[in-house]
Design brief:
single chain; mainly beta; six-stranded mixed sheet; 2 helices; globular; disordered N terminus
Length: about 400
């Protein structure tokens, strides 16, 4: 039986293609991510993080397999990261198990590409005899992931994949997972940054008498973090549907949160409908309401950028905009032609996304000024012209 591993090869693109075409694997593993189009100097961190509850190979709830970080750079001529599933040896770090994991490629403070991989099925590890190989390329130039096996092509950031959908023969079973229904719900930000609710077939110590005809989603909206209020039903989906996207919300790091849980709708012998007990409640932080705008979706950039002010030239005020790829501290200053600081516009932590700042230069003389933004070690500057 092959080891179940997550292996990340780092090599030139031509070598990666040859490697993937070989029948015999050069190193053990079931999920391979090859880094292609590498520049002369580079560094990456592979961050693997569990989302929600994780079960071990004996189907008991565990905190032993949360994921981990692994760093690589150009000094590694032929490197790989191997992460074993918990029921196999050797125990390559970070060891994973029956959980939902985010796998992300980071370059410094920038989260370049990421997806979610779900192993939460009690069909594993007994079904490990199936070929679980998954292979991807990470294009460093274009900052994209591509599925090579299965040949799904480009991976949008925030995409969700379940092992039972990727590998023929694996089933989405939940019976036998300890206290499953009390831990079934997990939520991630989908490709449009909306909350994506993920759960599985109902499984509890006492099976309801009747037929499950649906899954009902409940939500407590816009509450302070950790303090959910009243829950109301917002949608009922089919009995075999285990996902729901809340398109009215955007995931962020603001000071409001939504909480959710799911129940099953059961039809009894007399055609009377009733509901099971709820899943666990799962909370997600929302984006700052001031940044939501009127659109349903919000583009969260993955690039740090300082944009040209508008209007330019200006008198006496102009708008400066910038984008942050992650929640971080930003400092925005304005300097005169002699390098003297004349204005401090921003000096605080900000959400990822687009930010606008009004600069009023009523008290300054005409001339050319420099505005500069700093996020960690990343600095960018532009010129603006004040004409009175």
């Amino acid at each position: 039986m092959k080891h179940i591993l997550i292996s990340i090869f780092m090599m030139a693109s031509f070598y990666s293609a040859d490697l993937f075409s070989q029948e015999q694997e050069l190193i053990p593993g079931e999920v391979h991510i090859a880094f292609v189009n590498l520049p002369g100097t580079w560094s990456f961190t592979i961050k693997t993080n569990s989302v929600g509850t994780v079960w071990d190979h004996d189907h008991y709830i565990t905190t032993d397999y949360p994921g981990g970080d692994n760093y690589y750079d150009q000094n590694c001529a032929l490197c790989w990261h191997a992460s074993a599933l918990s029921w196999f040896y050797p125990p390559h770090e970070p060891v994973l198990s029956l959980g939902l994991y985010e796998i992300a490629v980071w370059e410094g403070p920038f989260k370049r590409a990421w997806f979610y991989l779900d192993y939460r099925t009690s069909h594993l590890p007994s079904a490990s005899n199936y070929n679980l190989d998954l292979k991807l390329d990470y294009d460093v130039t274009n900052k994209t992931l591509d599925f090579v096996k299965p040949p799904l092509g480009s991976v949008s950031n925030g995409s969700y994949y379940a092992i039972w959908d990727l590998v023929q023969g694996i089933k989405h079973y939940t019976s036998g997972l300890e206290d499953y229904w009390d831990n079934a719900l997990a939520i991630v930000a989908n490709t449009d940054n909306h909350p994506l609710l993920l759960w599985g077939p109902y499984s509890a110590s006492s099976t309801p008498v009747g037929t499950i005809v649906g899954n009902k989603i409940y939500r407590s909206a816009g509450h302070p973090p950790g303090q959910p209020g009243n829950f109301t039903a917002i949608e009922t989906v089919g009995a075999s549907v285990y996902q729901f996207i809340d398109e009215s919300a955007l995931v962020g790091t603001g000071y409001e949160a939504n909480s959710y849980y799911v129940t099953c709708v059961v039809e009894g012998a007399s055609k009377r409908l009733f509901e099971t007990g709820p899943t666990n409640t799962f909370e997600v932080r929302l984006i700052d309401p001031k940044k939501r705008g009127n659109n349903k979706t919000l583009y969260i950039p993955i690039e740090f950028a300082l944009h040209q002010n508008y209007p330019n030239p200006f008198n006496p005020s102009t708008v400066i905009s910038y984008t942050l790829p992650v929640f971080s501290k930003a400092t925005l200053k304005v300097f005169d032609a002699l390098g003297r600081e004349v204005a401090l516009l921003v000096d605080e932590y900000k959400d990822a996304g687009l930010h606008l700042v009004n600069f009023d230069a009523s008290s300054l003389p005409s001339g050319v000024y420099l505005y500069r933004i700093q996020m960690g070690s990343h600095v960018e500057a532009r010129k603006l012209i004040l004409q009175k």
